[in-house]
Design goal:
It is a single chain. Strands 4-3-2-1-5-6-7 form a seven-stranded mixed β-sheet. The chain has one domain: Aconitase, domain 4 (Alpha-Beta Barrel), CATH 3.20.19.10. The two termini are about 25 Å apart. The longest helix is centred in the middle third of the chain and has 10 residues. The chain has six helices and seven strands; from the N terminus they run βααβαβαββββαα. Helix 3 crosses helix 4 and helix 5 packs across helix 6. By secondary structure, it is an alpha/beta fold.
């Protein structure tokens, strides 16, 4: 399946505290988290995330292991996150909540640029250039296709 979005470009080493600051985690209201995503980086960024594919530098999601970071991104409408590397726990948390994470080298873009990707065929396309991505395991693709790990378990009940 081919998915599409528009690029929101970020730098390297974006940590989970930058994604959603701890001060907003006193509530379980995911809409609050979504409205404050990246607030300390750019207060206006949360309003631009619906339909976005985040393209970031290496080590995206480093820092604390809070599951709320990928949840907040998904709730804000992020379609996927592309980076050359991810913090291991963020990567797995994102898969578990149904947020596609795509490991790819050499992806460059401009904010707002159209992006298409296929997790099945292992590519991302930006600026008319198709770039191979690291394939996800069949199990991770199954979890994403179901909408997350909990959704997959519910389907199997």
């Amino acid at each position: 399946m081919i998915e599409k979005g528009r690029a929101v470009c970020l730098g390297a080493d974006i940590d989970t505290d930058c994604i959603i600051a701890g001060r907003y985690l006193r509530t379980r209201d995911r809409s609050v988290w979504a409205s404050h995503v990246f607030e300390d980086l750019d207060p206006a960024l949360a309003s631009r995330l619906a339909g976005a594919v985040i393209v970031a530098g290496k080590n995206f999601g480093c820092g604390s292991s809070r599951e709320q970071a990928p949840v907040a991104l998904k709730e804000a409408g992020v379609v996927a996150v592309v980076a050359p590397s991810f913090a291991r726990i963020f990567f797995r948390n994102a898969i578990n909540v149904g947020l596609p994470v795509i490991e790819a080298d050499g992806v460059s873009c401009a904010d707002g640029e159209a992006i298409a990707f296929s997790l099945d065929e292992h590519w991302i396309e930006v600026g008319g250039r198709r770039i191979p991505v690291h394939p996800l395991s069949p199990r991770m693709q199954e979890i994403l296709a179901a909408g997350g790990l909990v959704a997959l378990w519910r389907q199997r009940q």
